[in-house]
Amino acid sequence: MTITFRVRSVTMSVMPSPPHDTLVKLFSYRPQLAVEIMRDFLGVNLPDTPLVRVEKSTFNTRPSDDIEADLVVVLGPPRPPAHAIIVEIQQDKSKEPRQFARYAAALWLMLGCDVSVLVICPSRIVADYYAQPVESGLTGYRLRPWVLGPDSIPAIIDPHEAAAHPELAAMSVMVHGHNRKVVEAFATALADVTDEHAPDYFEYAYSMSAPEIRRLMEEIMKSASTEWPVYSPFAREHFGRGKAEGQAEEAGRSVLLVLAARGFNVPDDIRDRITTCADLAQLETWLARAATTQTLQGLFDEVG
Known about the structure:
Blueprint: E1 2-5, H1 18-29, H2 32-41, E2 52-54, E3 57-60, E4 71-75, E5 83-89, H3 98-111, E6 115-120, H4 124-130, E7 134-135, E8 142-143, E9 146-148, H5 159-164, H6 166-176, H7 180-190, H8 198-208, H9 211-222, H10 233-239, H11 243-261, H12 268-275, H13 280-290
Parallel strand pairs: 5-6, 6-9
Antiparallel strand pairs: 1-3, 2-4, 4-5, 7-8
Helix pairs in contact: 1-8, 6-7, 6-8, 7-9, 11-13
């Protein structure tokens, strides 16, 4: 049986929604967030280690089967790890709770360390449903998922706190965005966030929020002076970053990722040439060549 833990990337019978995918991104970009939520908001005693990573692993038994969790975060060194956290985003009650017990048991067998299941539920009803202990059907094995529901997500109205915890602030907007002070604190905080993913936080909060919260965000953000590279329809209209520019930026990033994956050490002059190119067709040509070129110069050679 082949059992795989990885970030969800396949087509399921029910397609993940934008809020689901956005929450997964929040935890993927900074897996330490799962540790902070469990320690600070849910009171879980976890190993004290600076080593936190997203895990991608496969192990085999029989018969053939696939197990897919939204995200697996591992604390500590690779061998042996100190603890593992399975992060699941649940917006409805469609998943059988016993599946979480299955996830935890399979990951325990694979890694040989203690495993916690953290379930993020924007809905109070869904949070209450998954907060119940899971009777696995196996004598002595009773899983208790840790659930972060709307009642556990604070209404952050202090811009300094929002800047210190931008992922949590984005979730606060999702849950408490009807409170204007929450949105104002979030908007003010974005100017002070220095994290590499700072340009994305507005889009995260925007995509996760209800239409009425989005309208409030737009009203408040219209008065903000910013050049953040954001790509929602609202952001393109008000922040002057067009769709073509966003596509060129993504294409340039893809070229660099392919070169890095193939082991190329890209010097600054070539990196600048790629990242400053606004010609999408040219970037797509470079991206195709990046997959096969034997030299960096071959990326730019014209085919005669």
